[in-house]
Sequence to fold (466 residues):
Amino acid sequence: MAEFKQVAANAPVAEKLLNWVDNRFPASKLYKEHMSEYYAPKNFNFWYIFGSLALLVLVIQIVTGIFLVMHYKPDATLAFASVEYIMRDVPWGWLIRYMHSTGASAFFVVVYLHMFRGMIYGSYRKPRELVWIFGCAIFLCLMAEAFMGYLLPWGQMSYWGAQVIVNLFASVPFVGPDLALLIRGDYVVSDATLNRFFSFHVIAVPLVLLGLVVAHIIALHEVGSNNPDGVEIKSRKDALGRPLDGIPFHPYYTVHDIFGVSVFLIAFSAILFFAPEFGGYFLEYNNFIPADPLKTPAHIAPVWYFTPYYSMLRATTTELVYVFVALIGLGAVLAIVKGRFPAAVKAAIAVVALVAAALLLTFEPKFWGVVVMGGAVIIMFFLPWLDYAEAKSIRYRPTWHKWMYAVFVLVFVVLGYLGVQPPSPVGERVSQIGTLFYFGFFILMPWWSRIGQSKPVPDRVVFHAH
Fold:
């Protein structure tokens, strides 16, 4: 049995209470390890507030979700009316509902910016590979959570959006129809689908999401935070073992994050009170119409945060499949002719290329569109092993690397915009070019990330006091 720590008999009541808790639960130890004695780099900039903001929005979503569930009815005949009841009759129900719907979009804004910061400063590089992988898994869970939650209001766009997306699974060879039936629980999106999505949205996915968030933070605090210079602060410590270029997370960065939270809440509140639908991007106008299985909307599109991937799905036509085949063939020829591989490896490359080309031509483009859409997210998991740049941070990489990332962001935004627009020949062609660039950015990264001369990386972080 562990020895209990004692305090003086005349100690304040608060100190005695804390000691009683510490002897049974490591409250002070956890506080010191993750707050007051967790040393973070002293050169954090504004990009480093988005992790805390993501945690804040997660709490907002959980709290507002609890209150919404109190009044929501997961029944196809009652769901839409229950949402209207929340909006019109429940005291402050409109505020809770808008906080939840606007919070979903805010979550993706914050997470996209958080991931972009990780990309430009190399936060996925050794020793933070697991931090990045947990983060990508959180992103996947967040997408599943948002998709399932989107059906719950049972409006026109909710219903038909779910119908379109679930039908995509039917294109999977051999098991597709059965898989789509399993997801829906019926031959069409119906009450069974609503109940399944409700249970996953409210219970299953949030539990996984919370577990991944805890794992993400534990992994981060185990290896330490990255910084804009990409310098490891743990390599230089004082006599007491404290990083020379680090400062305690509390109180320095708690104040830093409180300021960021204040600015965020001002912007969040402005949207919440003055433009909760945000021009139809956060809440589509068709979703204020009850779901009608007999009346298809003129244009079905997912919410804005899914639209870049939806654009890639729509861009995958027979033409693009032929382009994929040509690129695989070209890559195989270059590897065989220019590569310094043994004959057996070259033969294996030729066989793999032929099999890949045969598969691409065998299955319908709709299936490959689903593969492309899913692959656009999955490929990010491999980023730590694709980047061979000498310097971690964009600050010290060749200048043209900044342009590569700028074009990547531009392409992603354009794909997102095209995803909310009705299909058009020009939009399709631009989406196809954007899709090829998106995947080329990652697949060719082992090659292009080595090109150019990086600037000298300092031994210690560059910091200028404000």
Observations:
- The CA atoms of residues 259 and 356 lie 52 Å apart.
- The two ends are 50 Å apart (CA to CA).
- The chain is about 65% helix and 0% strand.
- The chain has a mean pLDDT of 91.
